[in-house]
Amino acid sequence: MQAQSPSLFDLRRQFHQQLPIRLAAMYEHFQRTDASLWLSEESAALHRGIHDLIGLAGTFGMQSLSYAARVTEAQVAEVVRAGIAPDETTRQTIDSSLNSLRQLALSRLDHDAETPYPPHLNARLDAAPLVHMLGNDPVQNETILRVLREAGFRTRCFKETTEFRTALKTSAAERPAAVIVDHNPEQQSKNAPTIAELDLDKECEIPIIVLSETDDLAARLAALRAGARHYLRKPVDALRLTEILEELSNRQPQQAYRVLLINDDPLQLEAHAAILRCAGMETRTSTQALRILEIMDEFAPEVVLLDVFMPEAHGSELAELLRERDHDAYFAILLTSADTDLARRVLANKPAHDGFLSVPAHPKQLIGEVTIQARRARQKNTLQQRYQASRYELEREHTTINQHAIVSIADRAGNITYVNDKFCQISGYSHDELLGQNHRIVKSGEHPPAFYQDLWQTILDGEIWQGEICNRRKDGRPYWVKTTITPFFDNQGRPYQYVSIRTDITDIKTAEQRLRLAQRALAASNSAISIVDARQADRPLIYVNPAFERITGYRQDEVLGKNCRLLQREDRDQPALVELRQALTEGRDAKVLLRNYRKNGDLFWNQLHIAPVFDESSQLTHFVGIAEDVSESLKATEALEKSEERLRRGQLYANIGTWEWDISSGQIYWSESIGPLFGLPKGDLSTRYDRFMDAIHPDDRQAVNDAINNCIENDTEYNIEHRVIWPDGTVRWLQEHGAVRRSSEGRPLQMLGVVQDIGDRKQAEQALIDARDAANRANQAKSDFLSSMSHELRTPLNAIIGFGQLMELDELLGETHRDDVREILNAGRHLLDLINDILDLAKLESGRLSLSLEPVMIGPLIEECLSLVQTLADKRQIRLRHKKLDAAVAQSDRTRLKQALLNLLSNAIKYNRDSGDVTIEVISLGEERLGIQVTDTGHGIAAERLPELFHPFNRLDAENSGVEGTGIGLTITHRIVAMMGGAVHVESEVGVGSRFLIELPQSAQPQPNYRSAPSSSLSSTAADVMPGENLVLYIEDNPSNLRLVNQILERRKHIHLLTAHTAELGIELARTRRPDLILLDINMPSMNGYQVIKVLQSELDLKTIPVVAITANAMPRDIARGKQAGFAEYLTKPLDIKQFHAVMNRFLNRNPVSPMS
């Protein structure tokens, strides 16, 4: 033993050396226990000293001394329990016992105590204990032995009992830590081993484990009585067998058990620690009980050995303290004491410890008990760590699921009992809104009833349901979830809850939809789209869309896996292929134009754009190609280039150029043909807006600038003629047309236009103007001459006709002379009619014939005309017929319409055959027009002569017919009707007759209160207005104002004034005459000026005519109201004649004139 455990030997020697001192100290404490010196502390100290001696003596092999000390301890314990000074008898008894202890100690000091350790202790503490297996089942033996070897045990197998006994009794043989016996009562006749046959020495204490197929009570009792420690039924649980062997062998783990020992006796403390260290344990010792918490935190022991009786604190108190502080920790507490009875009484009500170890304890017992407690503590710690790890993992998994998944639990009725935050976040409902509700609260209606029937049937059958569900948020928006629903069943097989875990896949669904759309877009694209695998050496095609098949003629299965070079066939020397190969090698974009060939061999031009695709590690994986068949586009481009060249040449030949003005930068770009138009060389030029304006004639710059601004601001067409001054001083006329190109927001970006030299046209126009002015002057001179001559001829005609009438009344005049006088009178009257017609024609041509337009009843007017020509018709027996139209009313001048009708009726009678017919008929020509038709049965007019019919003084050879006439009646009729807004039409057939139709504007019934004051005066008609002249309508109810404006404008030969004394008449005239300008009074009786302009602006044909107000309402608010109502200008009375002329010039596009010109 000394060689095996020198530390224990040293401690025993120290104990022998200290024993006299210990005994002397105990006796000193005893001396202080008599009544005169009684102190309870002394009796307690004496008790502790004897208590420690029991353990130390027994530990170091002095069993007699230990036993004697135990007897003495019982005597002292009674004194301690009594708490009073012992009587004399008790003192004598204790004194005698203490003397016996001294005698025993002295008698053993010079002798070695026998060792308390069995010789096989170290072998049994081996890290790989030996286990014997006795049995004749080879399969079972091999299985068990393999498991034990894997667990770190050494094994030896015996098939027969004799062999086992022989090996065991060999002196040199190692004793096994345990023996496993495979016992089968039914096979005893076949030499099956039994426990009785093992013939084991009872003192060797080798534990036996029996394995048996029998599990009845008799078999177990038999094994127990035969010495078996454990009885296991086959088939054996290998893990359980291993655990039993671990306990029986006291085998220490590779990581040593940690044991803390607290005892106030250093020798006792170190002795126990040495034994445990000998068993392979790690120990920490302390004689200071109050340092236990500090040591616990530092050392973290798995077993704590506490002496019960210590001066600073009892072991039970420390146990309670440790359990209260470290209630979650797993460590065992063993209490040690020599006084078993007193210790158990002390500990009865304080079960904070895990075991009690009586000292002195056999080393085997000490090691075994500590090992068992340490193993349990470590297992508990391991389980606790696993539990904590599992709990942590579950918490993290739960947190992860809550962060990622939508979780809910419903009871058997489907009512929600739990939802996580994610459920609330996704659905938009709060916990309170969801709990107690059915999941139908988020039902979207997306799925049919059969979908939910299948779901419920699946989970009611006890199966897990998985699928995708469309739910609806609180705000009505749908969301998709991937769902797993697990049913939970009770012992009766009934579901009691359903756990649903969902993943929000709305984004995935949206992405899938977008992907499907993208796939459909790829399939529907007109561009040929292809994808090649860049990771393979030949870069094969892995995808082509239908457009690729349509353009190339190859089917998908014919090209997948092949290189795109098949489209070039043998045409491999294209420069674009060099760029394409380089881009493929470098992994970059490229855009090339290739000559490709369809499957049928047809050539087509392919505009190809390739783009590389990289993975997450920036490695090139694919190329995407987008190709267009640009064959037709190239042809169109070539044709466009040719067209542009033709346009360029055409512009040069036509002296036309195009320009483009960048409004923001002010830069102007000209085509090459514009240079010569501005006196500059040919060629594309660029200039700025200010330089362009510098080239324009100073008198035209403002007009050009205004036209450009109006085009930009009001989006009107830019169309202007202006002059430019060349660098050499030459002035040329140009015409420009242009328009503005705007952004999507309407912001002007560019102005585009054309410019043309119109110098030759301007010269021709000026020549035409000069010729027209000369013709007008000649015509005016003719009209003035005729008017003057007709006036001069009336005086002599008055004498001729007057004296002729006197001679006709002379009764003495002979018949011959009377006939001569009649000829003179007829000739005079004919000459007078001719003069009147000439005068009317002169008035028409000079613009001085006045008309008064008003509603005229046509029926009564025709009757008047027929009565006037009846005598002429009777002379030739011509019948006059009138086909009336009830309530026919025309807008006309009654006197002049009567003149026109008389002309037509007179001609119809004069140029008719005797006993012929003349019919006058009123017909409707629609809602707004009516006609007066005069039909005769005369000789008719040839169709080719009809265009000459209305020329003045052209009688179409009627001068040879014997019928008198001037040849100007129809001319006057035609012009008068045109002035009234009507027209004259004629149809004729030789030998049948002619039909003349007067077409006039229809009017409402005339009102009896129309004034005969100058209600309307007309200088000319719209139809008779010459180019460059203007028609002005003045609507005014005051005659004096009408006369004033008439006198102001009568000297302006180009202005023809049309007047109306009522608003209604003015509106009607505006509709029928379409004047260039309307002058309008504000204050009128039936309709005011604001009502009139509202009517004018509501009609499409009238809304563009400028309207100028002339009124006495001159307050600022009146002027503002007039502007807001839409008046182009607002003039107040009395009129400023200069201002009035300026307004007329502005709206009639006239140059400024003198008010008197």
TrEMBL record:
Reaction catalysis annotation: ATP + protein L-histidine = ADP + protein N-phospho-L-histidine
PTM annotation (4-aspartylphosphate): residues: D182, D307, D1081
Pfam family, one: PAS_9
EC id: 2.7.13.3
Origin: domain of life: Bacteria
GO molecular function, one term: phosphorelay sensor kinase activity
Sequence ranges assigned to domain PAC in this UniProt record: 465-517, 588-642, 718-770
Keywords, ordered alphabetically: Cell inner membrane, Cell membrane, Kinase, Membrane, Nucleotide-binding, Phosphoprotein, Repeat, Transferase, Transmembrane, Transmembrane helix
Residue ranges constituting the PAS domain according to the UniProt record: 407-438, 514-587, 643-715
Membrane topology label: Multi-pass membrane protein
Protein name: histidine kinase
Native source species: Methylomarinum roseum
